[in-house]
Fold this protein.
Amino acid sequence: MSQQSDYRYSLKVNGATEFDVVSFVLKEGLSQLFRLELELASFDSSPSFSEILDNRATLTFWQGIEPVRYVNGVVTQLVQGESGFSRTRYNMVIEPDLVRASYQSDNKIFQQQDSEKILRQLLSKNHINQVEFHLSDSYWQREYCVQYRETDLAFIERLAAEEGTYYYFSHTEDGHTLHFSNHSALAPEKGTLLYNPTPAGERPEAALWHWAYQAKLGTNRQTLRDYTFTHPTYSQEHRHALQQTSVLGESAVNIYEKYDYPGRYKRDAQGEPFSRYRLEYERREAEVALATGDDLRLIPGYR
Protein backbone atom coordinates (compact mmCIF):
# COMPACT_ATOMS: atom_id res chain seq x y z
CA MET A 1 0.00 0.00 0.00
CA SER A 2 1.30 3.47 -0.89
CA GLN A 3 2.39 5.69 1.97
CA GLN A 4 2.11 9.45 2.27
CA SER A 5 5.92 9.62 2.03
CA ASP A 6 5.70 8.17 -1.49
CA TYR A 7 4.58 11.57 -2.84
CA ARG A 8 7.01 13.42 -5.06
CA TYR A 9 6.81 16.12 -7.71
CA SER A 10 8.44 16.94 -11.02
CA LEU A 11 8.27 19.87 -13.43
CA LYS A 12 8.46 19.83 -17.19
CA VAL A 13 8.85 23.08 -19.14
CA ASN A 14 8.50 22.62 -22.88
CA GLY A 15 11.80 23.00 -24.72
CA ALA A 16 13.56 24.63 -21.80
CA THR A 17 15.92 24.15 -18.88
CA GLU A 18 15.43 21.22 -16.50
CA PHE A 19 14.30 22.33 -13.05
CA ASP A 20 14.07 20.50 -9.73
CA VAL A 21 11.08 21.38 -7.55
CA VAL A 22 12.12 22.67 -4.11
CA SER A 23 8.66 23.77 -2.96
CA PHE A 24 5.38 25.03 -4.38
CA VAL A 25 2.04 26.61 -3.47
CA LEU A 26 -1.05 25.93 -5.60
CA LYS A 27 -4.09 28.18 -5.23
CA GLU A 28 -7.28 27.24 -7.10
CA GLY A 29 -11.03 27.65 -6.77
CA LEU A 30 -14.29 27.79 -8.71
CA SER A 31 -14.39 30.65 -11.23
CA GLN A 32 -10.81 31.59 -10.36
CA LEU A 33 -7.59 31.44 -12.31
CA PHE A 34 -5.39 28.87 -10.61
CA ARG A 35 -1.93 30.12 -9.64
CA LEU A 36 0.99 27.75 -9.13
CA GLU A 37 4.02 29.37 -7.45
CA LEU A 38 7.19 27.27 -7.49
CA GLU A 39 10.62 27.53 -5.94
CA LEU A 40 13.06 25.73 -8.22
CA ALA A 41 16.73 24.81 -8.60
CA SER A 42 18.70 24.13 -11.77
CA PHE A 43 22.24 23.44 -12.91
CA ASP A 44 21.62 25.96 -15.71
CA SER A 45 22.61 29.46 -14.60
CA SER A 46 21.76 31.20 -17.88
CA PRO A 47 18.39 29.96 -19.20
CA SER A 48 16.63 31.61 -22.12
CA PHE A 49 13.72 33.53 -20.64
CA SER A 50 12.11 33.82 -24.08
CA GLU A 51 11.93 30.02 -24.33
CA ILE A 52 10.22 29.77 -20.95
CA LEU A 53 7.81 32.70 -20.59
CA ASP A 54 4.41 32.19 -22.24
CA ASN A 55 5.27 28.55 -22.90
CA ARG A 56 3.58 25.48 -21.47
CA ALA A 57 4.71 23.77 -18.28
CA THR A 58 3.38 20.81 -16.29
CA LEU A 59 3.78 19.93 -12.63
CA THR A 60 3.27 16.19 -12.08
CA PHE A 61 2.25 14.71 -8.72
CA TRP A 62 3.65 11.20 -8.28
CA GLN A 63 2.74 8.52 -5.78
CA GLY A 64 5.48 5.96 -6.00
CA ILE A 65 6.04 5.43 -9.72
CA GLU A 66 2.49 6.41 -10.73
CA PRO A 67 1.46 9.94 -11.83
CA VAL A 68 -1.72 10.79 -9.91
CA ARG A 69 -2.33 14.40 -10.89
CA TYR A 70 -1.15 17.08 -13.30
CA VAL A 71 -1.25 20.87 -13.20
CA ASN A 72 -0.67 22.29 -16.65
CA GLY A 73 -0.52 25.95 -17.68
CA VAL A 74 1.61 28.72 -19.13
CA VAL A 75 4.62 30.29 -17.44
CA THR A 76 3.69 33.89 -16.66
CA GLN A 77 6.65 34.82 -14.45
CA LEU A 78 10.23 33.68 -13.93
CA VAL A 79 12.71 35.11 -11.43
CA GLN A 80 16.37 34.09 -11.40
CA GLY A 81 17.89 34.12 -7.92
CA GLU A 82 21.29 33.48 -6.41
CA SER A 83 23.72 30.81 -7.62
CA GLY A 84 25.55 28.40 -5.34
CA PHE A 85 28.44 26.03 -6.07
CA SER A 86 26.51 24.12 -8.70
CA ARG A 87 22.88 25.24 -8.78
CA THR A 88 20.85 28.40 -9.28
CA ARG A 89 17.59 29.26 -7.55
CA TYR A 90 14.49 30.27 -9.51
CA ASN A 91 10.92 31.29 -8.76
CA MET A 92 8.25 30.54 -11.35
CA VAL A 93 4.52 31.23 -11.69
CA ILE A 94 2.25 29.04 -13.82
CA GLU A 95 -1.33 30.07 -14.67
CA PRO A 96 -4.04 28.86 -17.09
CA ASP A 97 -4.32 29.96 -20.71
CA LEU A 98 -7.31 32.03 -19.61
CA VAL A 99 -4.94 34.50 -17.92
CA ARG A 100 -4.15 35.83 -21.38
CA ALA A 101 -7.66 37.29 -21.49
CA SER A 102 -6.68 39.60 -18.62
CA TYR A 103 -4.02 41.24 -20.81
CA GLN A 104 -6.52 42.53 -23.41
CA SER A 105 -9.47 44.90 -23.21
CA ASP A 106 -12.05 46.07 -25.73
CA ASN A 107 -15.34 47.87 -26.40
CA LYS A 108 -17.62 45.63 -28.42
CA ILE A 109 -21.31 45.05 -29.12
CA PHE A 110 -22.85 41.61 -29.58
CA GLN A 111 -26.37 41.35 -31.02
CA GLN A 112 -28.80 38.43 -31.33
CA GLN A 113 -26.39 35.93 -29.76
CA ASP A 114 -26.58 33.70 -26.73
CA SER A 115 -23.94 33.78 -24.00
CA GLU A 116 -22.21 30.55 -25.05
CA LYS A 117 -21.60 31.92 -28.54
CA ILE A 118 -20.28 35.19 -27.11
CA LEU A 119 -18.01 33.39 -24.66
CA ARG A 120 -16.62 31.12 -27.37
CA GLN A 121 -15.78 34.14 -29.54
CA LEU A 122 -13.87 35.79 -26.71
CA LEU A 123 -12.03 32.60 -25.85
CA SER A 124 -11.10 31.98 -29.48
CA LYS A 125 -9.78 35.54 -29.72
CA ASN A 126 -7.43 34.69 -26.82
CA HIS A 127 -6.37 31.37 -28.44
CA ILE A 128 -8.22 29.26 -25.88
CA ASN A 129 -9.66 26.32 -27.80
CA GLN A 130 -9.82 23.56 -25.19
CA VAL A 131 -13.28 24.51 -23.89
CA GLU A 132 -16.32 22.46 -22.83
CA PHE A 133 -19.80 23.57 -21.74
CA HIS A 134 -21.87 21.41 -19.37
CA LEU A 135 -25.29 23.07 -19.15
CA SER A 136 -28.56 21.85 -17.66
CA ASP A 137 -30.42 24.10 -20.12
CA SER A 138 -29.46 26.39 -22.99
CA TYR A 139 -28.82 30.11 -22.68
CA TRP A 140 -31.35 32.69 -23.85
CA GLN A 141 -30.49 34.74 -26.90
CA ARG A 142 -29.43 38.26 -25.98
CA GLU A 143 -30.72 41.06 -28.17
CA TYR A 144 -27.90 43.39 -27.18
CA CYS A 145 -24.82 42.71 -25.07
CA VAL A 146 -21.90 45.11 -24.55
CA GLN A 147 -18.31 44.71 -23.46
CA TYR A 148 -17.44 48.20 -22.27
CA ARG A 149 -13.96 49.28 -21.15
CA GLU A 150 -13.20 45.99 -19.43
CA THR A 151 -10.70 43.22 -19.99
CA ASP A 152 -11.76 40.13 -21.88
CA LEU A 153 -11.43 38.15 -18.65
CA ALA A 154 -13.62 40.54 -16.67
CA PHE A 155 -16.28 40.38 -19.40
CA ILE A 156 -16.11 36.58 -19.59
CA GLU A 157 -16.51 36.25 -15.81
CA ARG A 158 -19.32 38.85 -15.67
CA LEU A 159 -21.29 37.24 -18.48
CA ALA A 160 -20.87 33.72 -17.06
CA ALA A 161 -21.87 34.80 -13.55
CA GLU A 162 -24.96 36.57 -14.85
CA GLU A 163 -26.05 33.26 -16.40
CA GLY A 164 -25.41 31.35 -13.15
CA THR A 165 -22.38 29.66 -14.67
CA TYR A 166 -19.06 28.85 -13.01
CA TYR A 167 -15.83 27.63 -14.56
CA TYR A 168 -13.06 25.24 -13.57
CA PHE A 169 -10.14 23.38 -15.15
CA SER A 170 -9.12 19.79 -15.85
CA HIS A 171 -5.51 18.85 -16.57
CA THR A 172 -3.51 16.31 -18.51
CA GLU A 173 0.22 15.91 -18.99
CA ASP A 174 0.12 17.95 -22.20
CA GLY A 175 -2.63 20.52 -21.64
CA HIS A 176 -5.68 21.66 -19.74
CA THR A 177 -9.35 22.21 -20.55
CA LEU A 178 -11.58 25.07 -19.44
CA HIS A 179 -15.04 23.88 -18.34
CA PHE A 180 -18.22 25.94 -17.91
CA SER A 181 -21.15 24.52 -15.94
CA ASN A 182 -24.37 25.86 -14.43
CA HIS A 183 -25.30 23.03 -12.07
CA SER A 184 -23.30 21.10 -9.48
CA ALA A 185 -25.14 17.88 -10.39
CA LEU A 186 -23.25 17.94 -13.69
CA ALA A 187 -19.85 17.96 -11.95
CA PRO A 188 -17.71 14.85 -12.54
CA GLU A 189 -17.28 12.57 -9.54
CA LYS A 190 -14.03 11.76 -7.79
CA GLY A 191 -15.42 9.17 -5.38
CA THR A 192 -15.64 9.02 -1.60
CA LEU A 193 -13.08 10.70 0.67
CA LEU A 194 -11.75 9.08 3.83
CA TYR A 195 -12.10 11.08 7.07
CA ASN A 196 -9.56 10.24 9.79
CA PRO A 197 -9.75 12.70 12.72
CA THR A 198 -7.00 10.95 14.72
CA PRO A 199 -4.04 10.44 12.38
CA ALA A 200 -0.81 9.24 13.94
CA GLY A 201 2.56 8.35 12.47
CA GLU A 202 2.77 7.23 8.86
CA ARG A 203 -0.66 7.54 7.22
CA PRO A 204 -1.32 4.56 4.92
CA GLU A 205 -4.07 6.31 2.96
CA ALA A 206 -4.82 9.83 1.82
CA ALA A 207 -7.51 11.34 4.03
CA LEU A 208 -9.09 14.42 5.57
CA TRP A 209 -8.05 14.86 9.18
CA HIS A 210 -9.64 18.21 10.09
CA TRP A 211 -13.26 19.15 9.39
CA ALA A 212 -15.36 22.17 10.36
CA TYR A 213 -18.76 23.49 9.36
CA GLN A 214 -19.42 27.22 9.13
CA ALA A 215 -22.76 29.01 8.82
CA LYS A 216 -23.56 32.72 8.93
CA LEU A 217 -26.37 35.13 8.22
CA GLY A 218 -26.67 36.82 4.88
CA THR A 219 -29.01 38.07 2.20
CA ASN A 220 -32.03 35.79 1.86
CA ARG A 221 -34.10 37.62 -0.76
CA GLN A 222 -33.13 39.16 -4.10
CA THR A 223 -35.37 41.47 -6.09
CA LEU A 224 -34.60 42.64 -9.62
CA ARG A 225 -36.56 45.06 -11.74
CA ASP A 226 -36.23 46.27 -15.31
CA TYR A 227 -38.04 48.19 -18.04
CA THR A 228 -38.90 47.50 -21.64
CA PHE A 229 -40.40 50.02 -24.03
CA THR A 230 -42.53 47.27 -25.61
CA HIS A 231 -44.54 47.00 -22.36
CA PRO A 232 -43.83 50.17 -20.34
CA THR A 233 -46.54 49.68 -17.70
CA TYR A 234 -45.28 46.25 -16.69
CA SER A 235 -42.85 46.39 -13.74
CA GLN A 236 -40.65 43.48 -14.92
CA GLU A 237 -40.03 42.72 -11.24
CA HIS A 238 -38.76 39.34 -10.15
CA ARG A 239 -38.07 38.19 -6.63
CA HIS A 240 -36.37 35.07 -5.39
CA ALA A 241 -36.35 34.23 -1.68
CA LEU A 242 -34.69 31.56 0.39
CA GLN A 243 -37.36 29.35 1.93
CA GLN A 244 -35.33 27.91 4.79
CA THR A 245 -31.92 26.62 5.81
CA SER A 246 -31.21 23.59 7.93
CA VAL A 247 -28.71 25.36 10.17
CA LEU A 248 -29.60 29.04 10.32
CA GLY A 249 -33.34 28.71 10.70
CA GLU A 250 -33.93 31.81 8.59
CA SER A 251 -37.55 32.47 7.66
CA ALA A 252 -39.75 35.14 6.16
CA VAL A 253 -39.76 36.90 9.55
CA ASN A 254 -36.09 37.84 9.09
CA ILE A 255 -35.88 39.38 5.64
CA TYR A 256 -32.50 40.57 4.38
CA GLU A 257 -33.26 41.78 0.89
CA LYS A 258 -31.10 43.20 -1.88
CA TYR A 259 -32.79 45.21 -4.60
CA ASP A 260 -31.25 46.14 -7.95
CA TYR A 261 -32.31 48.07 -11.04
CA PRO A 262 -31.88 47.53 -13.93
CA GLY A 263 -31.91 43.76 -13.75
CA ARG A 264 -30.46 43.47 -17.29
CA TYR A 265 -33.28 41.38 -18.76
CA LYS A 266 -36.31 42.10 -20.95
CA ARG A 267 -38.41 38.96 -20.51
CA ASP A 268 -39.93 37.12 -17.56
CA ALA A 269 -38.26 33.92 -18.72
CA GLN A 270 -34.90 35.61 -18.13
CA GLY A 271 -35.81 37.63 -15.03
CA GLU A 272 -36.73 34.63 -12.88
CA PRO A 273 -33.41 32.74 -13.28
CA PHE A 274 -31.38 35.98 -13.10
CA SER A 275 -32.83 36.78 -9.66
CA ARG A 276 -32.20 33.20 -8.53
CA TYR A 277 -28.59 33.25 -9.75
CA ARG A 278 -27.98 36.56 -8.01
CA LEU A 279 -29.28 35.20 -4.69
CA GLU A 280 -27.14 32.08 -5.05
CA TYR A 281 -24.12 34.34 -5.51
CA GLU A 282 -25.00 36.42 -2.45
CA ARG A 283 -25.27 33.24 -0.36
CA ARG A 284 -22.11 31.56 -1.63
CA GLU A 285 -20.50 31.80 1.82
CA ALA A 286 -23.62 31.28 3.98
CA GLU A 287 -22.84 27.60 4.59
CA VAL A 288 -19.28 26.40 4.11
CA ALA A 289 -17.42 23.21 5.03
CA LEU A 290 -13.71 23.63 5.83
CA ALA A 291 -11.31 20.69 5.61
CA THR A 292 -7.62 19.87 5.79
CA GLY A 293 -6.12 16.75 4.27
CA ASP A 294 -3.77 15.22 1.70
CA ASP A 295 -6.16 13.64 -0.80
CA LEU A 296 -5.14 14.81 -4.28
CA ARG A 297 -8.70 14.28 -5.54
CA LEU A 298 -9.76 17.54 -3.86
CA ILE A 299 -10.00 19.61 -7.03
CA PRO A 300 -12.37 22.55 -7.69
CA GLY A 301 -15.26 21.65 -9.98
CA TYR A 302 -15.41 17.98 -8.96
CA ARG A 303 -17.56 16.16 -6.41
